[in-house]
């Protein structure tokens, strides 16, 4: 049996991270089917691409115009996402993701279960890109935390937790040197940057597992 740990640095306000997670999951399922003895643990870490995003989030087009003059760059993104189930069916808001990271890190800490953290990340991606929800708002994040994981808002929406997330974000950028996400680290040794193809993820995991 091979045990593999994958640390993923990612932001909910990163549509390519959403696509990357979808592709990574396809690779995980293929590994699970092909090599059932290989056990893979995925741990998600906070990264905030744009911490200066308005605290309540910004309208999709307003943000795109402000940053890039329009949303033409998303055409390639949407085309890449559709085959892997990232349809971007109702993307209305560019969120401030501080609270989302507070929820995910709290779930990881309290449950000690990386799978729950992964599920939380998936639920937040789905809320932003498929359901048109605003995860900048505490009420939205609180509903996801309570309904799916039984976590109360008082457990994650604290100044202490916010400071922890900011510190983790700074560490990823300054100590590790990450300048773009998604960023995958396999067994603290091998790095894959960006939304790689499912086959690239699969082959990397297979190589590390030595199968």
TrEMBL record:
CDD domains: DsbA_FrnE
GO molecular function terms noted in the UniProt entry: oxidoreductase activity
Pfam families: DSBA
Matches recorded under InterPro entries: DSBA-like_thioredoxin_dom, Thioredoxin-like_sf
Domain DSBA-like thioredoxin: 6-205
Protein's name in the database: Thioredoxin-like protein
């Amino acid at each position: 049996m091979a045990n593999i740990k994958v640390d993923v640095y990612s932001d909910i306000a990163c549509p390519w991270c959403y696509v990357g997670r979808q592709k990574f999951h396809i690779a995980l399922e293929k590994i699970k089917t092909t090599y059932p003895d290989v056990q893979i643990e995925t741990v998600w870490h906070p990264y905030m691409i744009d911490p200066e995003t308005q605290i309540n989030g910004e309208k999709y087009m307003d943000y795109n115009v402000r940053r890039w003059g329009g949303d033409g760059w998303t055409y390639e993104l949407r085309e890449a996402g559709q085959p892997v189930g990232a349809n971007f069916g109702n993307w209305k808001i560019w969120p401030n993701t501080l609270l989302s990271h507070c929820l995910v890190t709290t779930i990881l800490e309290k449950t000690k279960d990386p799978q729950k953290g992964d599920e939380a990340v998936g639920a937040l991606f789905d809320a932003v890109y498929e359901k048109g929800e605003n995860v900048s708002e505490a009420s939205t994040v609180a509903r996801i935390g309570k309904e799916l994981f039984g976590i109360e808002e008082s457990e994650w929406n604290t100044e202490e937790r916010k400071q922890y997330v900011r510190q983790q974000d700074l560490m990823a950028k300054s100590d590790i040197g990450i300048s773009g996400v998604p960023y995958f680290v396999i067994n603290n040794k091998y790095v894959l940057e960006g939304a790689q193809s499912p086959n690239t993820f699969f082959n990397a995991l297979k190589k590390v597992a030595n199968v």
